[in-house]
Amino acid sequence: MDLHVIAPPASPAERAAVDAVISERVGPPTTWHGGTRETALDGHVARGGHEAREHRDLLLPALHALQDRIGHISQPALGYVSRRLAVPPAEAYGVATFYSLLATTPRPPVVAHVCDDIACRLAGAEELCATLERALGPTGAATPDGRVTWLRSPCLGQCERAPAALLTIAGDEPRALAVAPLDPAGLVARLEAAGSGRPAGRDAGDQPWGPARRDTIRASVPQAGSDGLTLLARVGAVDPSDLAAYRTSGGYQALARALELGPARVIEEMTASRLVGRGGAAFPTGRKWAAVAAATAQPHYLVCNADESEPGTFKDRILLEEDPFALIEAMTIAGFATGAARGYLYLRGEYPLALARVGDAIRQARQAGLLGPAVMGTTFGFDIEVRRGAGAYICGEETALFESIEGKRGEPRNKPPYPVDVGLFGKPTTVNNVETLANVLPIVLRGGAAFAATGTEGSTGTKLFCLSGHVARPGLYEVPFGTTLRALLDLAGGVPGAGGRLEEAIRAILLGGAAGVFVGPETLDTPLTFEGTRAIGATLGSGVVMAFDRMTDLAGTLRRIAAFFRDESCGQCVPCRVGTVRQEELLARLASRPAGGPVGDELGLLRELGQAMRDASICGLGQTASSAIESALRQPELLVS
Amino acid sequence: MLLWGSNARETHPIFFHHLLKGVNRGARLIAVDPRRTSSAQWADLWLGLDVGSDIALANAMGREIIAAGLHAREFTKRATSGFDAYRAKVEPYTLEYAERETGVPADAIREAALAYARADRAMICWTLGITEHHNAVDNVLALISLALLTGHVGKYGSGINPLRGQNNVQGGGDMGALPDRLPGFQHVENDALRAKFDAAWGVTVPPKRGWHLSGMFDAMERGELQALYVIGENPVQSEADQERAKHLLSTRDFMVVQDIFLTATAELADVVLPAGASWAESDGTVTNSERRVQRVRKALDPPGEAREDLAIIFDIARAMGHDWGEPDPEAVWDEVRRLAPPFAGMSYRRLDELGGIQWPCYDETHPGELFLHSRLWEDPVPGLRAPFVPVDHDPPVDRLAPDFPIRLTTGRRLDSYNTGVQSGGYRSPLRRGESLDISPEDAAALSLAEGERVRVVSRRGQVEVPVRVDESLRPGLTFMTLHFQDEVATNLLTIDATDPKSGTAEFKATAIRIEKLTGTPATAPAP
Predict the structure, then answer these.
(1) Does the pLDDT of residue B366 top 90, yes or no?
(2) CA–CA distance from A221 to each of A41, A160, A475, A502, B226 (Å)?
(3) Is A49 an interface residue toward B (CB < 8 Å)?
(4) How far B314 CA sits from the closest chain A CA (Å)?
(5) How far is B95 from chain A (nearest CA, A)?
(6) Which residues of A touch B475 (CB under 8 A)?
(7) Looking at beta carbons, which residues of chain B come within 8 Å of A91?
(8) Which of B16, B50, B474 has the highest number of chain A CBs within 10 A, making it the mutation to test binding with A?
(9) Per-position b or e across A146-167, b if 16+ CB within 10 A of its CB
(10) Is A210 near chain B, with CB under 8 Å?
(11) Which residues of A touch B49 (CB under 8 A)?
């Protein structure tokens, strides 16, 4: 704070970009806080201190604004942000360099972030990247006009329509849009259009409501419109930008009922439902809510974790894009039950359409009195603020997510204390995943016991599965817990090849994403439940089911997974920071060994590394960074090409 | 937390680290300093008063507190004396007057006054910004009055705290290193107290107070002081009006310097006695800013011919015909305990057990006192009530004038210590050498470039120094340190206008002009 960036003053455009975001809460700049020198006014007095420092949580929004409007965060701009928010420049720099969507060196305004992660690899991402390199030059390099570049990206959450890219266009009217499935020529044409200021087209999921749109949705959600769906009931059936349509379809009945029941009864129903978290950790939601509701420290916060970034996962994206009111309603109920007046929706930075749809829905809900100081005319006040992530897998970890909202590097905290005691801004906080919250509405409407009647004893309700890779109809599926892996794959049209015989067509299935486990075709009859997957040493994780056929280069996939964790490790704790690097090195060494050479040393070391990361990493990233890789190496037959 | 005339962020970094812990837990910080220092940048409110206008500000704050009815009525009635005189004294100190004298906007003064008065707990910490003035004691009295007025004294989280410049400044005073005090602050002119020392020591203690440092220089000038024994001080470089100090010190009949370094003063001495460091190479006690007496332990023998202070003093006593036996720090301390009641209960054993004890500690069952003035909260108050001493604003002696239009204030930086004797021998990536720090506006008005050497002239002397443009300064205010005396003798400029009560010179307020050195190319500041 008493150190400053030595740089010329920020440009008017940079200052305007920052001020537009912070001026609602932060007063105008003074001599001492980023303004021009007015010593006649400010030479004898300055106000600051706590008041100046309490807006640190605006740091990431301000950096986003610079990235969106200017295309990168220059040193002068960083200095300006630091002064305006009274953040030490070194810390602001630490934050700016933490997130992959933010650039601290000049970058062309039009950027294609091309996914080369697991599912997109299976759909030809490497060939696509080679084509782009021929057309646009190497990754990161600007085109001759300086307007366009392309970068490789980890999973963009578009796996059901792989390969995919995210286009970001910086400028006075910044845009971002998902392109999927993409063909190289189409992408290059779009980039050229954007580079010369012409329209770059629309997001893959962005169409006016109508039959064509419903077709698009059915391509991602093959079950859309069919009966018997709970979580996906409205997807493809109700216009997500129409509050009236949402209410006609039964929307906001759950909130009305919750307000009638009162917080304690709502929590009772949640507990009776035996709902557990769908983000991957499977913690009982009712217990979490009860703990926050009982916490004496005030205020309480609600956070919806929509930072979906587990490779292979896209379920939350579809809920956010196609049923945003349901999420808002569920968050309102959660806020009511846990005594929170403020909810944060931390949304993945790579989901521009979700951002638009959710933002629009929040505005409509506010206008209709469904959010705000008097929800549905009661004395209960609740509102939601959307915060965008900026490209960091680790921010899906709940405490890293808090740090990110608070304007810090997204580095996980030690636990305990747990978020229910010390969470966002140090206050009791409920953190729920998007899909978890989607389950709240049927629980409140039908009662916890009725909800628990679906599924199995240990896994109640239905589950969303993200099917991708080598299946005939990739997409999002909702099935009751207990459905077997085979039945789920059949629902998705099976795995092409081998005449439809799954056992012969499949080499491996990745359950739970990059942090999950590879299983072989012998597990096809496993019931998909928390207890069922545990019994075969696997995990449901975030609901990823990615199929790999007999032709897959699984060793390459493993190296991509290792690279992913190496890249996404926040670097805070040693086992993960060093372990993920060493793991990737060992896989590269395995890959380059002469055919038939000994592999014992590498495998032993990989196991040791995995153990060290599991035992000693602060958070789940390090603890699971070796999970998929080790599971594959335990089954050498999976790796035979 | 009212940080007044202190850039603790740089001058007391460890203390400030503790202060920041409080700030990060929600404590509010108000900084009063002419410069927007790195400490002030942490503050909720910074009052950038003009140099030497502290009393105008403090009195106006007192007036505002009384006017708002926020003074501690019951406390002032029961535990203090002189409240009415104080109220009468501060009555003319309106916000308008204070704004005119200090430059600080009236609403900010009011805000600070009300915040201080309304706080459940509040403390005032100050350092040399208060005491290096010709009216230093008055400055302190004005702050004391604020604490008495609001009852922020003698209880947890309150009080008035001078931050000490060394670990044992307080200990020096405790042990009677003051011109008018014997150990334990017993006045030398009190016959009964002196008689106790006469009896214990078997000698006659001189019945009159001695000179303080500035008084000694005056005495040298009058020819009344010809021999000097300097222990752990470097007055040649630390005194104001350096030409005069150097002249006087180098013309004495005899001077002994006892120090751990060969200082500039030692170079003028007839005899230099190399001493051991007071930490690591000595046994004994120190007293910190919160009056906590702590043990220090010897880990090493002093190098070469250097010896512990105690051993040197014992030998000098022996040479003068007094054999005190073998030096034994614990025996000396026990003698202090016998003669000075505030330390009576502090045996080495108890100091070890309790991790230090805060005086007063009258016997070996006494736990020490967390607050010096907690008695003020007893009813009735035992002993004397705390007096308000009303004081008036009196601007700096070295007036600004057309030929000396710019205010120079001096101070310290994080990377260096005082005259640099202890810190100059070590490299620091932060240290950039001496400079005249100047506002961007003044630099522009005088056509000065960063790093350009200029001549700085005061009514007493002149130095050449490179310019450094510092955005934390307003027009008309400049800053230099005393860290690089060998390169730039800042104290050639400063005035030795001295507070008659404390003997401290007005280092903080010098009137200067800046002269461009024509034909001198601009150079980068020294690394």
Answers:
(1) yes
(2) 61, 9, 5, 22, 100
(3) yes
(4) 48
(5) 15
(6) 39, 43
(7) none
(8) B474
(9) ebbbbbbbbbbbbbbbbbbbbb
(10) no
(11) 44
Judged by DSSP in three states, B259 sits in strand
Query: Is the ipTM beyond the 0.85 threshold?
Result: no
Distances (CA, A) of B61 to B54, B64, B88, B115: 11, 5, 14, 10
Contact A496/B at CB under 8 A: no
Assign A2 a pLDDT band (cuts: 50, 70, 90).
Answer: low
Domain range A243-452, its CATH number among 3.40.50.2000, 3.40.50.11540, 3.40.50.150, 3.90.79.10: 3.40.50.11540
Rounded to two decimals, the pTM is: 0.86
Q: What is the mean pLDDT of residues A391-413?
A: 97
Contact (CB, 8 A) for B156 and B369: no
A208 touches chain B (CB under 8 A): no
B41: nearest CB among A2, A44, A51: A2
What pLDDT is recorded for position B523?
43
Residues B18 and B127 in one domain: yes
Q: Residues A128-173: pLDDT tens digits?
A: 999 999 999 999 999 999 999 999 999 999 999 999 999 999 999 9
Q: Which residue of A has its CA nearest to B100?
A: A44
| Helix pair B83-90, B54-67: axis angle to 10 deg | 110
**Burial of A247 (C-beta count, 10 Å sphere; 0-12/13-18/19+):** middle
Average pLDDT over residues A420-438: 98
B155 and B244 share one domain: no
Indicate which of B20, B45, B438, B472 best probes the interface with A, i.e. most A CBs within 10 Å of its own CB. B45
SS3 sequence of B355-404: CCEECCCCCCCCCCCCCCCHHHHCCCCCCCCEECCCCCCCCCCCCCECCE
C-beta atoms of A46 and B46 within 8 A: yes
Cβ atoms < 10 Å from Cβ of B169 = 17
Residue B253 pLDDT class (50, 70, 90 cuts): very high
Q: How, if at all, do strands B436-438 and B477-481 pair?
A: antiparallel
- DSSP, collapsed to helix, strand or coil, labels residue A168 as strand
Q: Is the pLDDT of residue B249 over 80?
A: yes
- CA angle B147-B49-B43, nearest 5°? 70
Domain boundaries, chain A: 12-96, 110-195, 243-452, 462-549, 554-639
B440 touches chain A (CB under 8 A): yes
Which residues are CB-contacts of A588 (< 8 A; sequence separation ≥ 6)? Answer: A559
Question: How many domains, in total, are found in chain B?
Answer: 3
Q: Do A50 and B26 touch (CB under 8 A)?
A: yes
Between chains, do A39 and B38 touch, taking CB under 8 Å as contact? no
Q: How many residues does chain B have?
A: 527
Output DSSP code: residue B475. Answer: T
Give me the sign of the Cα torsion angle A156, A160, A164, A170.
negative
Architecture of domain A462-549: Roll (3.10)
Nearest to A49 among B44, B439, B474 (CB): B44
Q: In the CATH hierarchy, which top-level class contains the domain A110-195? A: alpha beta
Name the closest residue on chain A to residue B20, using Cα atoms.
Answer: A49
Contact A338, A298 (CB under 8 A): no
pLDDT tens for each residue of B275-310 = 999 889 999 999 988 899 999 999 999 999 999 999
Cβ–Cβ contact B49 with A under 8 A:
yes
What is the architecture of the domain spanning A554-639? Up-down Bundle (1.20)
Instruction: Return the closest-CA partner of residue B1 out of B13, B10, B18, B65.
Output: B18
Q: Examine residue B477 and state whether it is found in any structural domain, yes or no.
A: yes
Distance from CA of B525 to the nearest CA of A (A): 16
CB contact under 8 A, B44 and A48: yes
Residue B381 within any structural domain of the chain: no
Q: What pLDDT does residue A35 have?
A: 87
A301 phi/psi in degrees, rounded to 5: -120, 155
